[in-house]
Amino acid sequence: MTIDDLRTSVRGGVLLPGDADFEPAAQPWNTAVAQSVAAVVEPADARDVAAVLEYAAAAGHVVVTQPTGHGATGDIDGAILVRTKHFDGVEIDAERRIARVGSGVQWGRVQAAAAAHGLTGLAGSNPVVGVTGYTLGGGFGWFARKYGWAADAVRAMEVVDAAGKPQRVTAESDPLLFWALRGGGGDFAIVTALEFELFPLPQLYGGRMMWAAERAREVFDLFVELTTGAPEELSVWLQRYQIPGAAPTVAIDFAYLGDPAEGRRLTARLDALGGIVADSRGLLTPAEIGRITAEPTDPSPSLSRGELLTNLGDAVVKTLIDEPVAPLLNIQIRALGGALARPSAGGGARGPVTEPYALYLLGLGLPHLREAVDTRFGEINDALGSHLTGAKPYTFLAPGESAAAAFDPQTLDRLQQIKRHRDPNNVIRANFPVHA
What we know:
Elements: H1 6-9, E1 13-15, H2 22-26, E2 39-42, H3 46-59, E3 63-65, E4 80-82, E5 90-93, E6 98-102, H4 107-115, E7 119-120, H5 131-136, H6 144-147, E8 154-160, E9 166-169, H7 175-181, E10 190-197, E11 199-200, E12 204-212, H8 216-227, E13 234-241, E14 249-257, H9 260-266, E15 276-279, E16 282-283, E17 302-309, H10 314-322, E18 330-335, E19 357-364, H11 370-384, H12 409-422
Parallel strand pairs: 2-4, 3-4
Antiparallel strand pairs: 1-2, 5-6, 6-10, 7-11, 8-9, 8-10, 12-14, 12-15, 12-16, 13-14, 13-18, 17-19, 18-19
């Protein structure tokens, strides 16, 4: 049996090294990550997924699914890479407030479809991020303080298990697998569709206010004021930027789920700080949520680190606010709390996060900058010391890190037991696998 046998067993596209379109198909979203895979398969349906798994088990390959290429680590040499672009359906049941979404769909399409009914999914900040990978890893964005993890909103999944069997997984049909997939990553089955709850969102007010970097300490103080005792409908992020060729800046990004007048009242103290260089505040629809941070929507080379912060003490202020951003591009602090800190009603592998803030660091992943960026990551980590718990959101994990950082030991052990039982030969591999 050779890799060419995939072409005869799969009805969808199969690209092998040397094919004209192989390199771009194998390239992940982060172009600083290289993936040396044996094949890229674009299955037409669940039967194709089963055929890929059957072939991989017989030939000794692992199967990695990357719907959009986000979250890639590069640690998948010789794997069969599955792209699910043909699983592209979006169905909205407005009466039941349920979306059924194929595993190749990006959040922007879901939000546009839901917005037509005054509803929203628990999307992240970027419309081109895939729904499936984001949700399997937990997923938290602008609506998480109010409604919790995106994984907690999942009501059913259509999967193909490691034995090649298609099935619909719910809390009733397979509680262990359902629990693991809701926040435990994609290590247990290949998901072909998700069904998840949508939430009413008749009004949304948000945007960005930006100042010159010299105002960073004042903006930080306002960030602390805004996030202390804020209602769960209000989410606020602090951003510091050093974009090559541009002056450094500091920004407050926020989203308020409710009456714009109340949103303006809650954030009115931002107007007291003069020197605003940009202000995008206004009414938004769920489909326009990406306008708040205006993150890049094209692939690019990057290096990142994510952490959870216990507090915003003096060491945090000195390191993250007073010192220059460079050689990084971005320092982001997100206020957490609210529903994220509480156990969800349905339960899932993600579980609550008790740390009040998340930290995200971003740098360019160009070869001549990598050493400086990595060094700065280490310096920040060392300086923050006990202000970091060492825990990380699964979707914040970076190449070289382990899924063990995203789960407490008891949860990780349970995930590993489910992995051993459901996929004893490790045919399926997530970007960050739970198995040792």
